Amino acid sequence: MLNAIAVPMAPEAARAVRDRPDALIAAPLPQDAEVRGDWVRAPGARGGAVIYVHGGGFARTMPEAERTMAYRLSKATGRPALRVDYRLAPEHPYPAALEDVLAAWRAVLDEGVPAAEVVFAGESAGATLVLSALLEIQRTGGPRPGAAIAISPLTDFALKGASIADNDGKDVMSRAALGSIVAQYLADAPADHAPQSPLYGDPHGLPPLLIAVGTDEVLLDDARRFAEAADAAGVSVRLEEYEGMPHAFQLSEPGEVLLDRIGRWLADPVRVFTVSGPDAGPYALTGGSDGALWYTLVHQGAIGRRDADGRITVHSAGTKPMMIAQGPDDALWFSEYGTHCIGRIAVDGTLSSFAPPTADGGPYGIAAGPDGALWFTLSAAGRIGRITMDGHITEYPAPEGFPSAMAAGPDGAMWFTLNQGNAIGRITMDGRTTAHPLPTEAAAPVGLAQGPDGALWFTEIGAGQIGRITVDGTVTEYPLPDRQARPHAITSGPDGALWFTEWGRGGVGRITTDGRITAYDLPRADCEPHGIAAHDGALWCALETGALARIDVPR
């Protein structure tokens, strides 16, 4: 689901834009601005870079005003900003300006700035050029920038957006002016082709995007349609619609709101990627041997795969696939709670299914064991199962109490939560079980993971706590700041801490091995985060409302 945000603006803000459309750029550069050619640095700006592409209908430039905007972007992002002095139409029609933006990108990389620390930012025509450049960078391969900001882009030179007519007369930009811009910029290039018209390109693999537009703009639908297309292609997109704002609102005083939000968006460690409809229910996830992220779609009865470019493949599976784990055979194994089977999917999509001896057992947790097999819980039957790579299943009785999640321990045994038994269970490779009761009543443990400290860590969804159990059965509990957060799944992170989802709060938590807790908000409080896994140097969690969230690990 597209992350679209309506940004309320006071009526007097819209009047201020129309009365003083150039308020932010009419004033001279502040005395603390450091200017070297087309590089502008605000105080406090450090590493990385902003490649700033100005507007002006592809035909006009105001260097001093643009340096002022570059300064404000540098201040908002904490990076030095490079103003791109691209060639102008009609003397230099498409693709001259795009070639200049790409040349600036290569020059910044040649200066040693890491690609991931570069942010593209553009307004109006410059926003169009930013999106065109991103499509070309992706098409030709090589590194990609870390993020991009497009303010009021023209994405469809065929001018098919409904708002071009609907907002004509309300906006400071007109339909007639757009027609003139198209004619001057495109010359003989087709209007319905990419990269000149970004809407007709393939957005797969683009970096995270912040697209901003005013609701009174003729280009409102151009922004919306590109954001929707990028979201459907698995790109992390935030669309911000500024109520009552006309074109070029970012150049007036209300634009300070946008600049502040740009800075906070860039600093946010969380990025969200749509992978299914809101009713499909991404539930658990894990990295595969193929470098992709695999996840269960519990309500759709399917297994999903997301590759590094955000391309999604969906394979039909048994009813209510729940937990998923990588097996020692490089395939993905998962529990089919609704069809009471254990499923296997190879990285080429080949599916197979195995029924345990106990009928209607309700398979739930699954994890690879130290013996080259997969171990799983039969939650409804109170049993633990073991399945070999050729599909042979052995079952063992478990302590009473709804065995749930499962994890390998550092002691050569498998450990599991007893959700209704209020205990943590352990089973040896020969099937002997032990249960360790929890100190807190009705703690209802669910998620379980081996920590980097030689202990097992688990979530207490009923008590709002994180627990730790050593292999000798010693339990320590850590209350969460929000006891109603309902922690669900937990995993070891690449930073030596444990990370967990907070289903009740719509967030993600981090706990160090000495019990220090940090909370991270997800974009929506009702996003229903469930599974969590480390993948490609970050933490990923499944949001049952149709998305996966990526959380950058603090270094």
From TrEMBL:
GO cellular component, as recorded: outer membrane-bounded periplasmic space
A GO BP entry: antibiotic catabolic process
Enzyme nomenclature, EC number: 4.2.99.-
InterPro entries documented for this protein: AB_hydrolase_3, AB_hydrolase_fold, Vgb, Vgb_bact, WD40/YVTN_repeat-like_dom_sf
Keywords: Antibiotic resistance, Lyase, Magnesium, Metal-binding
Residues noted as binding Mg(2+) in the record, renumbered to the chain: 528, 544
Start and end residues of each Alpha/beta hydrolase fold-3 domain: 50-250
Catalytic site: 530 (proton acceptor)
Positions contributing to substrate binding: 488
Function: Inactivates the type B streptogramin antibiotics by linearizing the lactone ring at the ester linkage, generating a free phenylglycine carboxylate and converting the threonyl moiety into 2-amino-butenoic acid.
HAMAP family: VirginiamycinB_lyase (MF_01282)
Family membership noted in the UniProt record: Belongs to the Vgb family.
Description of how the protein assembles with itself and partners: Monomer.
Protein name (record): Virginiamycin B lyase
Gene assigned in the entry: vgb
